[in-house]
Automatic annotation (TrEMBL):
Residues 1-30 are annotated as: Disordered. It comes from the Bacteria. Residues 1-10 have a biased composition (Acidic residues). This is Transposase.
Length: 109
């Protein structure tokens, strides 16, 4: 399933909070994950949120949609500054609720 999250969630991200479409609340735990860490979380069923920083858009993906979105972004994951070629690069962070985690990918150019 892929869902565009409402605009209120955009504002909450800067405070390190996010509410999923099911009402579950998440808080930022980390901001710089490596590919293998993301692989592990998504393999365990964690949802993936794409935070399109330049476009003010948040896309919630889970299940097969999360795996497809991650596969498209995986090679452009970085733990450093954006590449000088201007292509979109992603950083990944883990966000946690009481009983689960999600991966938030932040896309920048």
């Amino acid at each position: 399933m892929q869902v565009e999250l409402p605009d209120e969630q955009w504002d909450a991200l800067s405070s390190g909070r996010l509410e999923g479409p099911d009402g579950r609340r998440y808080q930022r735990r980390s901001t710089r994950m490596r590919r293998r860490q993301v692989d592990d979380l998504l393999s365990s069923g964690a949802p993936l949120v794409l935070y399109w920083y330049g476009g003010s858009q948040l896309d919630w993906c889970d299940g097969e949609d999360a795996r497809r979105a991650w596969e498209a972004a995986r090679s452009r994951l970085t733990t450093s500054v954006p590449r000088p070629d201007g292509d979109v690069v992603w950083t990944a962070g883990e966000w946690v609720s009481d009983d689960t985690s999600l991966v938030l990918l932040t896309g920048t150019c």
